[in-house]
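Hi everyone, sorry if this is the wrong subforum. Our group has a chain we'd like a structural model of before ordering constructs, and none of us has done structure prediction before. Sequence below.
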Amino acid sequence: MNIVDVIDVTKTYRQGKLDVHALAGVSVAVERGEFAALAGPSGSGKTTLLNLIGGLDKPTRGKIILDNEEITGLSQSKLATMRLNKIGFVFQAYNIIPVLSARENVEYVMLMQGVPARERTERARTILDEVGLVNMHDRRPAELSGGQQQRVAVARAIVSRPSIVLADEPTANLDSRTGRGLLEMMVRMNEKRGVTFIFSTHDLMVMEYARRIVRLKDGLVTDEDTK
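Answer:
Right subforum, don't worry. Here is the predicted structure as tokens:
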């Protein structure tokens, strides 16, 4: 059963007097529970596609269906509600809040969802332990390594029980050993919790772990591999 259907999607940006096609008639389907990568060089359209799936941008043409709901025509407020309840995001730059502890960062999305305080704390502590941050719950980002900060970001993305996690170049700022550890942890989350992951990446190591690779170039899907 598909969790994402991208149907003949085009995304055009205006640059001066020119129209630039970031995506040109792309169609992709992702099944629930997949561990998939959108791969390609800079400018291929992979991050644009990830942002469209996440409702952070809207296509010029085409449809996107997420978890059985067409999101293409939703208002900004409805898109924000959809992102809050259905999508976990992991960004290249971590995007965790520097003045909050690891636990408070993980609790943040649940706070916005209205989850009771005791449940928030219990779920945050459990997921932080699962991602390998035992005894680091009260540390602030400045007291954590880059890899540990990205683990906090992954914990925050997963703890709210989203339908899907979208990860944009999650290993880009990490050394290879730390990046591999992060990917192995996300594989465990995928297998244990059934979380669907979609990455945008040009990192060969991410492609090594992905069980399906959708390759893009110049705004077009060029081929797909399934392991």
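For your construct planning: The longest strand covers residues 2-15. Strands lie at 2-15, 18-31, 35-39, 61-66, 69-70, 87-90, 164-168, 196-201, 212-217, 220-226.
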